[in-house]
Amino acid sequence: MTKKSKIDHYSDKEALDFHIEGKSGKIEINSSKPLTTKRDLSLAYSPGVAAPVKEIAKNPELAYDYTSKGNLVAVISNGSAILGLGDLGSLASKPVMEGKSVLFKRFADIDSIDIEIDNKNTGSIIDTIKNIAGTFGGINLEDIAAPDCFIIEQKLKEHLNIPIFHDDQHGTAIITTAALINALDVSNKKIDNVKIVVNGAGASAQACTNLFKSSGVKNENIIMCDSKGVIYKGRDNLDQFKSAFALNTELRTLKEAMKDADVFLGLSAKDVVTQDMVKSMAKNPIIFACANPDPEIKPELIYETRSDAIVATGRSDYPNQVNNLIGFPYIFRGALDVRAKEINEEMKVAAAKAIALLAREDVPDEVVSAYGGDRPKYGKDYIIPSTFDPRLISVIPSAVALAAMKSGVARKNIKDIEEYKDELTNRLDPSMSVMQGINAKVRKNPKRVIFAEGEDENMLKAAIEFGKNKLGKPILIGAEKRIKEQLKKIGLDENYKIEIVNSTHKEKREKYVKHLYKRLQREGQLERDVDRLVRNDRIAWGSSMIACKDADAMVTGNIRHYAASIEKLKKVVDPRPGEEIFGMTMITLKGKTILVADTNVQDFPSPERLVKVSKSCVRVARLFGFDPKVAFLSHSTFGKPISKNTKHVRDAIELLKKENVDFDFDGEMQPDVALNPIYKDIYPFSKIVGNANILIMPALHSAAISTKLMKVFGGGKLIGPLLIGLGSPIEVAPLRATTSEILNLASIAAYSSDVIDYSN
């Protein structure tokens, strides 16, 4: 059994701050077309918009081509069953629905709009959705209480020709069915022979039962129970929905039903299953205790009773989490891409089988990262893929799309399914994969990482997350009293276990003074000056810790300007031999990742420096797994126009041509030429045009300005700037960096300490 992990602690205040920081909420709408000129506006609205209007009027199917309909899902709730909180009203459900929209975008690149309907009347809700449905390619129903959710979904399916999906039902059913398929395989049981007990008779339980049947479980082999016991034919007060699951049986209680059962599925309440019930089950029992937040029986109690059991829960701190996130984004992705009229049973079964088969394959590093550095292997503790498996985006939608086409509900055919899989893979944010890969490697060999500004709230949070995520051991530099005050401020105990160091440690201070004095004594520094430096300067203290092997890496900055941190670092740390110190920023946007340098250190680089920077960028790019293609940028392209401000870039190209380098490079060129493939026809002689992933900037100001503009106005996601060429694994966080930004830099610093030789 995999050990239970500690649940991350987040205070209510931190959650509230997260939702209110910057723009309120979690979603926004951006334009997919340029709207910068009068012509753009004329095409986007009046009079140009009339053309697609007339075409859609003649053929409504063209709305998929001329509007966002084909990639737009409505996330709809009335707030009558919000998570485990109950009926709190439609407006209270909005944070959940926004969260669902975020997940659609993050995991499947689907745009969605949350709609909260302030109404409990099923007829009114149905009419409202029917009247707005033409706007969307699909409808996701969420947090609607039973039996209303059944009625609403069924009526909408009868009237609409787009996918209608109640995730609480079908998402749970698909993941649970996938888990069942694999659990049966691991335990060597046949689906058409197993006896299954389902405890709970709500929306998700009924959907699971139906999908089990569609997957091969015999009707007579499934016994459903509710709070009153077994649902049997002839029982009083059964509604039409529960009646459909009633069996002819003498069994009356859950305890009786579980005797000799092969499978238990719980979607009910905590602690309703006892160890005696577990003992009574058949050999190699399969127990899915999925009540949230507390399961029907704790896995620890199951394993005390039955070492042969296969267990799943709805929680992330136990193995085999039944998590709907594995399903709904990808199911909708496949359904939308073939313009499916509905999500039918064939599509659900196909999704379940695809999920099950994926869990049997060797896992990539991203999954290792999610599992704290361990590599999970298909078996009783790994029957469901990780939510962070990057293959989900290609495997599930393609299976769903194929099933839709075969079952006749697709209005659009995908001719080349392998090409479609490649397109799916390229849709997602590559920065996430980059950091997951780095984190996976860091977890294999955890490091001691210094967080230099230990009293800063964001730095402190990053240090805590670094430890929680098993990336290594965080070390804070700062006053213990102030750090304890900050711990209380963010909702943790002031005695939270984390290492704190400062200049009050006499023995360490003397060691670090000795180290630095040896370095600085021939630069006019007296020993007392060095002592003062070590006492008062966190960078001097932290870099000395690394040099003296008391730590492996450091992240600093955040509360001071970047340049000030760099100047302090240069006093106490040398560059790597043969390299220049510079800043490199990783930008991800629209499925492409580029590295930009120098973004932070040298104002006006010489040709020689540009050459060194390019070679260092190539070295780092390869460490990140990129095939480097280097473009030297300028406001001119291959000599047009020529000016004194382009000469140093042209000279750098000529210098690099004289060296025997093992990477492709070219320049000078403008950024659109470097990144946009449309220019390949104009400049066919260059391998770099349209393909560059490393941009060497002509000056610091152009690099810094362009990357910040990309972040603020272009929607690009930035990692860094990374400090390249320094003789120690130290990263500098920009002024007021977020917790996530600091955490990324800490991981990269730890990774650098492992893969880069700093011994010279």
- What is the tally of helical segments? 30
CATH architecture field of the largest domain? 3-Layer(aba) Sandwich
Low-confidence stretches: 1-8
- The strands making up the biggest β-sheet line up spatially as 7-6-5-8-9-10
Classification by helices and strands: alpha/beta
Average pLDDT reading: 85
Give the C-level CATH assignment of the largest domain.
Answer: Alpha Beta
According to CATH, the homologous superfamily of the largest domain is: NAD(P)-binding Rossmann-like Domain
Helix content: 40-55%
Biggest pleated-sheet summary: 6 strands, mixed
Could you tell me the CATH topology label of the largest domain.
Rossmann fold
Report the C-alpha radius of gyration, rounded.
Answer: 30 Å
- Strand content of the residues, in percent? 5-15%
Alpha carbon gap, first and last residue = 45 Å
Number of domains: 4
Shape descriptor reads globular
Number of strands: 21
Task: Describe this protein's structure.
By secondary structure, the protein is an alpha/beta fold. The chain starts with 11 loop residues before the first helix and ends in a 5-residue tail after the last helix. It has 4 domains: 133 residues, Rossmann fold (3-Layer(aba) Sandwich); 155 residues, 3-Layer(aba) Sandwich (Rossmann fold); 135 residues, Rossmann fold; 144 residues, Isocitrate/Isopropylmalate dehydrogenase-like (Rossmann fold), CATH 3.40.50.10750. 42% of the residues lie in helices and 13% in strands. β8, α12 and β9 form a beta-alpha-beta unit. It contains 30 helices and 21 strands.
